[in-house]
Amino acid sequence: MLVHQEKNGNQSDEKKAWEEFISILEHKLPGFVKPWITTLEPALPLFEKSENEIFLVKSSQSFGIQVLTQKYLKEVEDALFEITGLRRAARFVLDETIKKKKAPKLTKEEKENIETIKKMENLAQMHSFCNLNLKYTFENFVVGENSKFAYKIAEMIAAEPGQKYNPLFISGSVGLGKTHLMQAIGHRILKNFPNLKVRYTKAEEFGNKLVESLIGCKNSGDLNEKMKKFRDKHRNVDVLLIDDIQWIEGKKRTEEEIFYTFDALYHAGKQIVFASDRPLSAFEMLPDRLKSRFEWGIEVKITVPDVETRTKIVKKHSIDSNFEITDEVAQFLAQTYCTNIRELEGAYNKASAIASIEGVELTVENTKQFLELEKQAQKISLSKIIEVCAKYFSIDKKDIISSQRSKEIANARKYAIYFSRELLNVSYPNLAKEFKKTHTTILYQYENLKKTIKTNKAAQIIADEINELIKK
User: Fold this and answer.
1) What's the DSSP call for residue 99?
2) Confidence category of residue 107, pLDDT binned at 50, 70, 90
3) How many domains does the chain have?
4) Do 152 and 251 fall into the same domain?
5) How many helices (H) and strands (E) does the chain have?
């Protein structure tokens, strides 16, 4: 550590130390950052310890301040510590009066790097303006059989917005990736067509802003001005993405505004995308004229992903979170959280956070402990499993333990046996006694269904849905 002990205000010592500080940064940071480093000047005496432990650095380059703050702040603070021996937080201030020094010559690659950073910065600002989440891109979306068709259509729309499949209506249960996919369309359009205006909003936000524009106006002129501002925000765009569109059903004024917004955009050739937790066929109170417009384009459905896709999702999430987990743990989480990807990712976040804090490897056993799955299992009883399976297949629960063999009863019995083993680990002899079957029959039905669930998509969906009902 090159710590200078001179603290008597000697300007030559300060200057020499500062030059060493700049030299350290030039060696530590990429070459394309040099033009911004050379303009840096101290805003405070270098060796003076401030009360708030902050050291101010002046620069004449506003974009340089952005890059150094966002990407290289730690390196700047480490270099300050190396020179002064004082651990302080660095903060940059813009000072355009600083005389610009002659910047070193940059290579072609370094110049391209600067342009790339500027483009990325502009793109991030555009995404923020459009109300988009930077993590919801096509690249981050894990495609499975449940979403393959929806993903392909979304990519086609992003390649040619407003040309076909307009509007796009994405439906699916909560937490399956509808928001991710519709925002991915927005991101891709911004990347391919940076001059287009994209706007993402939730239907509830749209409705609330509409109400704000309608109330509290003192006169008609004020109302017209507020409504014009509201409409410009949603109609003066090239791509409008509205999430949770089911929220508007029954809200007459919002339905009407959506109708006219739709017409204005559609007839101008603009792309419209809706997402809903219900399919269009389930909209019973929506005005026919609006529902028919939703049907003009194409509806794509995202269903519950299979266990293989869920495993891939949680594995990718772990990589993105910089806390990777084993395939065994990923598969356990995927099997435990069947119907909601947000819930699956939330379970991973909690388990990995506890493991990280405690400094232990995440195993299946401590995952159960961290997520308190044993306590949850205690709330599940054999009686509840039988009741849920009977209700799911629309039979009486006493029929499950009868000798009847109709298709519905046989299916309900198989799933009840399966979940009794999976969730409660009831022994085969006890299950044989409970279901009034032989030990061999119980073993065969369990093993046979377990194998079927792994290979048959329909059986897997049924198992996931029953599992969710049992855990409620």
Assistant:
1) P
2) low
3) 4
4) yes
5) 22, 8
Residue ending a domain, among 74, 94, 114, is 94
Q: Which of 301, 326, 356 is the last residue in one of the domains? A: 301
The Cα 183–Cα 195 span in angstroms is 17
Residue 426 and residue 303: Cα distance in Å, rounded? 32
Q: How far apart are CA 264 and CA 269, in angstroms?
A: 9
Dig out the tokens for 446 from the structure. Answer: 């369990």
CB 415 within 8 Å of CB 385? no
DSSP single-letter state for residue 16: H
User: Is 253 found in the same domain as 160?
Assistant: yes
Same domain assignment for residues 227 and 293: yes
User: For the whole model, what pTM was predicted?
Assistant: 0.60
How far apart CA 367 and CA 336 sit, in angstroms, is 11
- Give the pLDDT score at 203: 94
Please, which residues have CB within 8 angstroms of residue 41's CB and are 6 or more apart in sequence? 18, 57, 58, 59, 95, 98
Residue 221 vs residues 26, 99, 232: alpha-carbon distances, Å:
59, 51, 16
- CA–CA separation, 18 vs 6, rounded Å? 13
279 and 168 co-located in one domain: yes
Q: What is the DSSP letter of 394?
A: T
Sequence-separated contacts (24+) of 71-75 with Cβ below 8 Å? 72/29, 72/33, 75/25, 75/28, 75/29
- In degrees, rounded to 5, the angle at the alpha carbon of residue 335 between the alpha carbons of residues 329 and 339 is 130
Per-residue pLDDT of 289-337, as tens digits, reads 999 999 999 999 998 888 888 999 999 888 887 788 899 999 889 888 8
Alpha helices in 29-173 (DSSP H): 34-37, 62-71, 73-84, 108-129, 148-159
**Do 344 and 409 share a structural domain?**
no
